[in-house]
Amino acid sequence: MTNQNVVVSDAKSGIGLALFSSAVAKPPAAAAQGGGFVAIPRKKPLKKLETGGGAARISAWVDSMRASSPTRKPLSESEDQIKSSWILHHPSALTMFEQIINASSGKQIVMFLDYDGTLSPIVEDPDRAFMTKEMRKAVSDVAQYFPTAIVTGRCRAKVYNFVKLSQLYYAGSHGMDIKGPAKDSNNSEVNANANANLNDNQGLSFQPAREFLPMIDKVYKVLLEKTKSTPGAKVENNKFCLSVHYRCVDEESWNALAEQVKTVLNDYPKLKLTQGRKVLEIRPTIKWDKGKALEFLLESLGYANSDDVFPVYIGDDRTDEDAFKVLRDRGQGFGILVSKVPKETNASYSLQEPSEVMHFLRRLVEWKKSLLHGH
Ligand SMILES: O=P(O)(O)OC[C@H]1O[C@H](O[C@H]2O[C@H](CO)[C@@H](O)[C@H](O)[C@H]2O)[C@H](O)[C@@H](O)[C@@H]1O
């Protein structure tokens, strides 16, 4: 049986195209250097994979699962060249800070932050992906000056327990569970601008996949049962979506695990399978993702058709590409990919790891303070 709902990587995000199309806006460094886009050897197919038999299919799946979160090893000379070329086209957001600030001149910066791998380092146990108190302070300071949202694949309540900042917007379950700060939150700039989708007492609230809750709960239980024989596998209930983690599973068992998950999904054609960093993600097939969540939040903040907004989205995962693509297509703001290795991306800039994200957030705050206080 063929499951048409298995997506190895979101082809709709057009990631591959971004690297080779001259129609795509180039980041300033690339434009200044007059360079073309760099070709990165593709480790994963950017198209739907069918679940019919065949060794090629198995190998494609395992390749894709491996590429989702590559292990660090010293680079060969050619890999080193690829990296240098990639950096030229996705320069560091820290190095390019002044240019970024200049581009935002006269516009309202709105910050969108992914959680895992962006605000917290990737760790083996998803329940222990804590952010540092320094990072929390940096995010809190940023939210004082700019509307700020956390956009994550995680369950909203769980990410709130990690972040613990009430003045932020939260878009959990890949944007399918959106909540704004309560109206008495101390961020007056955010509240003054918000004009849509408001629930009077609670602030903003939006859950486009509510009808899927019973189905997700059912599939969660089935997956718990089916995967318990695979040592290291972990199923996480993210409310409107599910994660099957394989970071701690022996690589030899990855394909069997993926097959188990796909077999379960054959009975649920309204759910689809996508991939994150060493995680298989089960989501409703509705047309909603982090990119849609970003657009929804901009609209809710009163910036639907505004030229006066400068959204900045920072993320490390394939699922963040939907948001990077929205920004690229709108020609507004930009995406920053958090990665130490070259990856196909619609982001314009890069940062290497969460500590650099923290420095970038701090610099934004320092810049805004100096602007307001004139020093
Ligand atoms: O959108 P995000 O905030 O990046 O969430 C995506 C997934 O993040 C979590 O998994 C990832 O981080 C874990 C902790 O570092 C790591 O163990 C795992 O391998 C990563 O995939 C979260 O647990 C998932 O539910 C999210 O879907």
Automatic annotation (TrEMBL):
Origin superkingdom: Eukaryota
Protein name: Trehalose-phosphate phosphatase D
